[in-house]
Amino acid sequence: MKEGNVKPPPFDIILLEITDEGIDILESVNDETYQLYQQWRENSCGHEDFYYYQDRVFNVAGGNFFYGIIDRLGQDKFPLLISIGEKLLSADQAEKALKELDIFESGASKLQGIFLVDTVSNEEYGRSLPGEDKWFLSSGGEHTYQLNDRGFCILDRDHRELFHSVAFAQEVMSVEKEGREHKHARFHDLEMGRIFESSYPLSRKIWGIDELYYPISFQVVKRNLKGSDSQPARV
């Protein structure tokens, strides 16, 4: 934009500001001008929304897994990778970070991980490291779901264990509440017969399809890690 390589905006250019984060518009503009700004951002540059490349690297659970591997391999080996979420890297630093990533992937293959696997599709729904008790799904405070040495565990808001299993079935039911349909899950442990009901089924979004996919059975598997098990490493 500074060099005049974008289409001129359909509003007064003095309303724009360039910050360390990129291009933005003054908060004082009205709704109509803000809508014009949004449309302009999408189409004014050869790269949509002014991004040359954009990808989601990880969520909290993915970050926990990534940094958990680094902790086990030794933080001193990864001075750039461990700080990568805090700052931008120069080209020179990025080259060094890629070398750290090679060490990361090589070291990860010597560690073991715990995975929650859909027994029909073999897709992985959660991952953890032995000795950890970090959650990978939360239902807004009512329940949190963990993977640990005991398997798949459901805890209440006071961190008390309500259910655990290494092989279980999931039955998803619809419950009407206050005029709206809500999904409800019944987890059935296939070894001990324990049953637990939750308002938070395990699901997956399939792009292009409106309805969520709900697996009917899961198994907890322990195996050696691959570098690609960590979403940040894949990106």
Could you explain how this protein is built, in words?
The structure is a single chain. The protein is an alpha+beta fold and 235 residues long. 21% of the residues lie in helices and 31% in strands. It is built from four helices and twelve strands; from the N terminus they run ββαααββββββββββα. It has helices at residues 31-43, 60-73, 91-108, 231-234; strands at 16-19, 22-25, 112-118, 124-128, 135-138, 143-148, 151-156, 161-165, 167-177, 180-189, 195-198, 217-224. The chain has a six-stranded antiparallel beta sheet. Strands 5-6-7-8 form a four-stranded antiparallel beta sheet. Strands 1-2 form a two-stranded antiparallel sheet. It is globular. The chain starts with 15 loop residues before the first strand and ends with a helix. The model has no long low-confidence stretch (mean pLDDT 87).
For the structure shown, list the relevant keywords:
alpha+beta; 6-stranded antiparallel sheet; 4 helices; 31% strand
Residues in β-strands, percent: 25-35%
The tally of beta strands, per DSSP, is: 12
Q: Output mean pLDDT.
A: 87
Shape: globular
**Biggest sheet overview:** 6 strands, antiparallel
Estimate the helix proportion, in percent: 10-25%
Radius of gyration: 23 Å
Overall SS class:
alpha+beta
* Low confidence ranges: none
The number of helical segments is: 4
- The ordered string of helix (H) and strand (E) elements is EEHHHEEEEEEEEEEH
The neighbouring-strand order within the major sheet is 4-3-12-9-10-11
State the end-to-end distance.
Answer: 28 Å
